[in-house]
Amino acid sequence: MRTNYKKLYSKMFKEYVFALSPAGGNHNYISLVLLGKIKRSILIYHEDGAYSSNNPGIKHGHFWNDSYQKIIDNPSTFAYHNVINEKFYFVIINWWEKFCYNAPDDYHRNFYKEWYDQQIFLWKNFDHPIVRANLNWFYGYKNKDRPELKDCPHITNKFNFDCLYTNYESARDQFLKFGIEYTESQYNDWKNSQKCVFDSFQEIQNKPINQLTKDYQKAIAIGLLGIENNLSEEECWQKYKSELN
């Protein structure tokens, strides 16, 4: 018997969606799909989602704060936790491409500038401070040491971020958990809109480290080698920093 998705949809998603998700986690896109309010295929869905002047009903937090309890207790709100697992490095790629290299405006670009200035100061004693900063970010996410990746027992609905970077079937199954029939056409439209993100990962996989043009790419490349060889963050840096030159 075919599931009545329209009935499920109208029952679950009345007005609002609350997403607990790190920046770079595609939570605006995921939330717009849940609300049935995707208008167009674009790289950065912020301006159609939580950051738009005409917010369609999306709220989000990067890590749990007790003040969010009142939001998720609202019967008109569907809350989900965007869980980051093995493909955590796509969060870093997203963040850089969407806040730095392809930022649509100064509002988005200022997030990058603030982070960049802080990290230059923190890692100033290193020859490649931004690579080193990104490697710290990489290992922080790998080990789930950062607060935005901690498990959140307050929100029972979990969306697996990895599915979007696996295949259509995996993404379809995640949305289906929430009663949403997600089509292959929708997935392909999203994937095409994220071309620079997928292209960047291809470069990370296929180019020598010293031929990569972006510092975050170099950090992910050596980080992946560190994982492959079961190295700690510091061991990884010491072993592969010579590859940067």
Radius of gyration: 19 Å
Main sheet characteristics: 4 strands, parallel
Q: What is the helix/strand order?
A: HEHEHEHHHEHHHHH
Question: Number of folding domains?
Answer: 1
Helices, by number, come to 11
Overall average pLDDT: 92
Describe this structure in words.
The protein has one domain. 49% of the residues lie in helices and 8% in strands. The chain is built from eleven helices and four strands. It has helices spanning 5-12, 27-35, 68-72, 89-101, 106-122, 129-142, 168-177, 184-193, 195-206, 215-228, 233-240, and strands at residues 16-20, 58-61, 77-83, 158-160. The chain has a four-stranded parallel β-sheet with strand order 2-1-3-4. It starts with a helix and ends in a 5-residue tail after the last helix. Mean pLDDT is 92; it is low at 1-11.
Features:
11 helices, disordered N terminus, about 240 residues, four-stranded parallel beta sheet, alpha/beta, 4 strands
Brief synopsis:
This protein is an alpha/beta fold and 245 residues long. The protein has helices at 5-12, 27-35, 68-72, 89-101, 106-122, 129-142, 168-177, 184-193, 195-206, 215-228, 233-240, and strands at 16-20, 58-61, 77-83, 158-160.
Secondary-structure blueprint:
Blueprint: H1 5-12, E1 16-20, H2 27-35, E2 58-61, H3 68-72, E3 77-83, H4 89-101, H5 106-122, H6 129-142, E4 158-160, H7 168-177, H8 184-193, H9 195-206, H10 215-228, H11 233-240
Helix pairs in contact: 4-5, 4-9, 6-10, 9-10, 10-11
